[in-house]
Automatic annotation (TrEMBL), chain A:
It comes from the Bacteria. Residues 15-82 form the XdhC- CoxI domain. This is XdhC family protein. It holds the Pfam family XdhC_CoxI.
TrEMBL record, chain B:
Gene3D superfamilies: NAD(P)-binding Rossmann-like Domain (3.40.50.720). InterPro entries: MoCofactor_Util/Proc (IPR052698), XdhC_Rossmann_dom (IPR027051). This is XdhC family protein. It holds the Pfam family XdhC_C.
Length: 107, 233
């Protein structure tokens, strides 16, 4: 079943209230053909469980890894993925688009 | 994000009220603006425009780069008429993330067998619709073809803020309907809100095709606004 943004943010709240550490990732900008629109969310808990998507599968793994750092450091960060980016060549967007993702801890 | 901010955001959505979360992605500050608070906000114009489009995105304000998370309530579709076209509409509406509710006082039509898993009201629309609260995130379609049922339903829809009002029936049927609604006291402007004959002009024949044309028209009204949808028609 596809999780809608509603369920994703409700789940983030429920996780936090249940005592888990949580980070919220949001697509804040896209260029070219990007698989998920601006405003799409991915929520991640401290164990690396996640719900939602920011790219339809291409870069979720990398976002989850960064999210664990964000939870650890309690500091938000901005991630960029795209073909112009060297790391994105490994975990990049095969569609050729570029996306910027804001990852913040839920406090 | 602070947990209480997320709680408020979730609560606003559950109550079918719009809100915008303003995030300073470089500085890290964050605040939530509820629909009712927009008029008094320094960014009122930008927020109002974003809300109308239902679109999140980056903006610049006072030299800061801000991300606006625009949250509008799930779009609802209220259909009067538990008919064949409505049945065909259910799976398509689900794919489009529309919450569908069916109203039809004829108990032979409004059965869970015909509409499994769909909120169903086998009652008169003038009793049910005010209770459902047709808001500006609701589309309304009258599909029974029976003035006894459609007319009071349309009257309730025209008195509401819903963003789309459509009614099944030929131009001739609609002309008679317009006369009845005018006699009931609705002015020209109100009656002009009704999209009739209902649906985009795609030469629809089968119930599924008619359902598609209606849903296409609803999406156009949602994404282009009422003026845009009229221009496209």
């Amino acid at each position: 079943m596809l999780a809608t943004d509603d369920e994703i943010l409700r789940q983030a709240e429920a996780w936090k209230r249940g005592g888990r550490n949580v980070a919220i990732a949001t697509v804040v900008e896209t260029w070219g053909s990007a698989p998920r629109p601006v405003g799409s969310h991915l929520v991640i808990d401290g164990e690396g469980n996640f719900l939602g998507s920011v790219s339809g599968g291409c870069v979720e793994g990398a976002v989850v890894t960064e999210a664990l750092d964000v939870i650890e450091s309690a500091k938000p960060r901005i991630l960029e993925f795209g073909v112009a980016d060297e790391t994105a060549w490994q975990v990049g967007l095969s569609c050729g688009g570029r996306i910027k993702v804001y990852v913040e801890p839920l406090e | 994000m602070k947990l209480d901010l997320l709680s408020t955001l979730n609560a606003e959505r559950a109550a079918r009220r719009a809100a915008v979360l303003v995030t300073d992605v470089e500085g890290g500050g964050q605040r939530l603006v509820r629909e009712a608070e927009i008029a008094g906000d320094p960014m009122a114009d930008v927020l109002r425009e974003r809300l109308r489009l239902g679109r999140s995105g980056m903006v610049e304000a006072d030299g800061r780069r801000l991300f606006l998370t625009v949250q509008v309530p799930p779009v609802r579709l209220v259909v009067v008429g538990a008919v064949h076209v409505s049945q065909a509409m259910i799976p398509m509406a689900r794919a489009l993330d529309l919450d569908v509710t069916i109203v039809d006082p004829r108990t032979a039509f409004a059965t869970p067998e015909r509409f499994p898993g769909v909120p169903l009201f086998a009652e008169w629309p003038d009793e049910v619709l005010p209770r459902l609260g047709l808001d500006r995130y609701t589309a309304f379609a009258a599909l029974t073809h029976d003035p006894k049922i459609d007319d009071p339903a349309l009257a309730a829809a025209l008195r509401s803020e819903c963003f789309y009002v459509g009614a099944l029936g030929s131009r001739k049927t609609h002309a008679k309907r317009v006369a009845r609604l005018a006699a009931a006291g609705f002015d020209e402007g109100a009656i002009a809100r009704i999209r009739a004959p209902i649906g985009l002009s795609i030469g629809a024949v089968s119930p599924a095709e008619i359902a598609l044309s209606i849903l296409g028209e609803i999406v156009a009204a949602l994404r282009l606004g009422p003026a845009g949808a009229q221009a496209e028609a």
